Structure formats: structure tokens, C-alpha cells
Amino acid sequence: MFSEDELLAISGLQHLRFCERQWGLIHLEQQWAENALTAEGRILHDNVHEGGTEARPGVVTARGLRLRSLRVGLTGQADVVEFYRAEGRETGTVQVAGRSGWWRPFPVEYKRGQRKAGSCDEVQLCAQALCLEEMFGVAIEAGALYYGKTRRRSDVRFDAGLRAETEDLARRMHALFAAGRTPAAVYAKKCESCSLYEQCLPRAGSKEGAVARYLAGALREGEPKP
């Protein structure tokens, strides 16, 4: 279990899943550079969070709900949590302040673009579900990712594999934070779209790392044999 002071940002999981160095630059060195993509994403999230809470028959929509989990050591803010009315008290249902009856929580995360390869977005959403489960004491089976470019939702099942990946990343993030050292750069094609490219200089960093490894190997080869 973690204390309140030890909690790390849920948003960091997405950065870590994309690139450990990007996570370090943002969350250890406090570096951030906005490009067109990140600006669009920030504006989208700001607009979603400003909506407050609304209700229509059978569903209550809460925006900007604060989240935390002491078990996995995460904290953050949900874009949207929808609560769907249940017939009665069933597995996975909760009570909502100011509302009668029982409700089933369903987290929704908003993204500016379209569905990506990999599990960056799914991990972030699953982490929100883990927080909600701890806060409400229920199991949450699914949520959704809404993509602004396609204006469509993509349903996400919180299965055992995704839960394990999310918790493994949370543990890795805490280990890196405790070490307090930004991981070295490793260039990949995805680096070209990163808003921190100029701060990271992945091509230069990768070359420096290769030279260091070469020199270390050469020195080992030159050592006398026991």
C-alpha cells in the first residue's frame, strides 16, 4: 500500500508505455513542449472537464472526477464516468450521491486523434478503472475510449491481461521515480512525432550510448585474463 504522498499520476502510465525516456523528461525533469497534437488534446480534455455533472433518464454523467488508488499508487482525474441505472443492487453497482437506486460505473477517456497501435490508451483507462474499483469497492468490467478524429467510441474490456500490464507499468513507474534517473534515449520511428524530440535528441543519445557500450566492451577485452 502507498501513502497519499507517494501517489503518481495516472497520465504517466501512457507516457511510460510510449517511451520510458519521455516519461522521465516529463515526470522527473518537469520538461514539456507542446505541439499541435498535444495542444488539441489539452483543449479537448479541458472542454470535457468543464461540463460538470448531468443526468438523463437512466444515466448520470460525472466529469472531472478525482481518482486514486493506494494499492497501485496512482492518482488522477477521469474525463468522464457514466453511471448507468441498474434494476437493483447487483454485482458491480454503487450508490451515487444525491441519486436513489443503484448504478453501474463506466469510465470514458477522451482522445483527440484515432485509435493507436499498442495499448497506451487502454492502460490509462484501465488505471482509472482500478482507482474506481478501490474507491467504490466494486469490480468494473469495461469502459470506453472516445476518439475525436473518428467521433466514435471504442469499448475496452478490463480483462486479466490488461489489468496485469497496467499494474506492472505502475510498479515500473514507481521504481523509476524512486531511482530518480531519466532513462537513456533509444531512437525509434515514433520519436519523430514526440513533442519532446528537441529536448530528448534521441538520435544523438542513441549514438552516445552505442559509443559508450563499444568503449566498455573494448576495455573489457583488453583486461588481462585471470
What does this structure look like?
The chain contains 7 helices and 9 strands, in the order βαααββββββαββααα. By secondary structure, it is α+β, with helices and mostly antiparallel strands. The chain has 2 domains: 169 residues, Lambda Exonuclease, Chain A, CATH 3.90.320; 43 residues, no CATH class. The chain starts with 7 loop residues before the first strand and ends with a helix.
How many domains in all?
A: 2
Major sheet: size, sense and barrel closure? 6 strands, mixed
Q: Measure the end-to-end span.
A: 47 Å
Gyration radius, rounded: 21 Å
Percentage of residues in DSSP E strands: 15-25%
What would the keywords be for this entry?
226 residues, alpha+beta, Lambda Exonuclease, Chain A, 2 domains, six-stranded mixed beta sheet, three-stranded mixed beta sheet, 7 helices, 9 strands, 41% helix
Brief digest:
By secondary structure, the protein is an alpha+beta fold.
Topology:
Elements lengths: L7 E2 L1 H8 L1 H8 L8 H14 L3 E4 L2 E5 L2 E4 L4 E4 L2 E6 L17 E9 L8 H17 L5 E6 L4 E6 L2 H20 L17 H4 L1 H21 L4
Helix pairs in contact: 1-2, 1-4, 1-5, 4-5
